[in-house]
């Protein structure tokens, strides 16, 4: 039965302090069950690998999860699984002795495995109260969306709407913005702050310690649920993602559409069966769009997207294949080289599957307000002449001219993955004057690094992952996180002067 507290109890076990050293994963199984999406989610949480997990076949994902679970102590929670067939597919990924917690309403699923823990029912008076609320829940969606319903449920609607009505004026747009995200979606807080800033909901003067204040206020009002980071960091907030309860998401979505704040279009309803798949943005609507997110889940590649050059007021452009295809691999999206014409663009989140029409590189010159650039390749993207660039996340498998990036005076975060770094990485004098966070991952050929005078002068946080030939660290840091390094390297770290600052992720 729903509502007995199965998920709450599982969450308490999952967050228990004695289990923090385990590799952990939590996945919620919806009634629209997608095996590959579930396995990708589990593998990413368990091993935090930087490999192209999204491209793996289901069989390969199962093999990797199975192998990893044999090598490490793991705890995996499969929340709200509905039928036996789904569980039969999922459980093949786990060895016999792996710690797996299931929450389910199905007695058949529960009885298949070890002795289930059955939650007790309420006493008669409490049971009747629960049944009354169950009736409320059955009518909630209709009532929220249409504002109609029987009199006995009016108080429930008023209670939910009151939570929104009493919000201060500065929190209302922040809350409505969450309607842009799918139901049950874990929203990365760092990205959310950037998006709020792009919309001027948060002033740029509030960057830093005060940037999370609005999200904290929403959480204190029980409008938003905060999700704890798996690794505590003294320099950063202990919450790395957030989300909305299902009922609150319904309220958020209905209010956002009611106030003409957000318009969500389900492409699967409108674009299916159109050969070839093609997305066109009409000039009549382009002038009113300030944020465009395209989550593609099509069985064929999108041949092109037309009309991008008309988005004169666009501040955020996001392409993502995180909505996973269930019938084969995710395909490429081809774009015209017109993003450079979006003069007001501040945040650009690309996908590794984006391909340009033609042979030239993606032009970004003229984007003087661009601050965030994610998932780029130096072989396909020009990043010169972006003076305000504050964050670069590179998924490049070619060569990155790091010293050219180091000239950007406002760059605060740099993420380099699988780039070609041969021998010694040298940070020249006065390079990266504002850089605070540096992430190095899968730099197989980098052995040493050298920091010249006044370079990386404000760097406080370093993350190193699978840089297998790196011999030593720099010691001018407040916090270091290390993962996937050799035992010899770790021994040197633990014996060094900076050992108390190191967060070791094995």
TrEMBL record:
<protein>
    <recommendedName>
        <fullName>Disease resistance protein RPM1</fullName>
    </recommendedName>
</protein>
<dbReference type="GO" id="GO:0043531">
    <property type="term" value="F:ADP binding"/>
</dbReference>
<dbReference type="Pfam" id="PF23559">
    <property type="entry name" value="WHD_DRP"/>
</dbReference>
<keyword id="KW-0433">Leucine-rich repeat</keyword>
<keyword id="KW-0547">Nucleotide-binding</keyword>
<dbReference type="InterPro" id="IPR002182">
    <property type="entry name" value="NB-ARC"/>
</dbReference>
<dbReference type="GO" id="GO:0098542">
    <property type="term" value="P:defense response to other organism"/>
</dbReference>
<keyword id="KW-0677">Repeat</keyword>
<dbReference type="InterPro" id="IPR032675">
    <property type="entry name" value="LRR_dom_sf"/>
</dbReference>
<dbReference type="Pfam" id="PF00931">
    <property type="entry name" value="NB-ARC"/>
</dbReference>
<dbReference type="InterPro" id="IPR027417">
    <property type="entry name" value="P-loop_NTPase"/>
</dbReference>
<feature type="domain" description="NB-ARC">
    <location>
        <begin position="1"/>
        <end position="138"/>
    </location>
</feature>
<keyword id="KW-0067">ATP-binding</keyword>
<dbReference type="InterPro" id="IPR036388">
    <property type="entry name" value="WH-like_DNA-bd_sf"/>
</dbReference>
<dbReference type="InterPro" id="IPR058922">
    <property type="entry name" value="WHD_DRP"/>
</dbReference>
<dbReference type="GO" id="GO:0005524">
    <property type="term" value="F:ATP binding"/>
</dbReference>
<dbReference type="InterPro" id="IPR044974">
    <property type="entry name" value="Disease_R_plants"/>
</dbReference>
<comment type="similarity">
    <text>Belongs to the disease resistance NB-LRR family.</text>
</comment>
<feature type="domain" description="Disease resistance protein winged helix">
    <location>
        <begin position="181"/>
        <end position="252"/>
    </location>
</feature>
<keyword id="KW-0611">Plant defense</keyword>
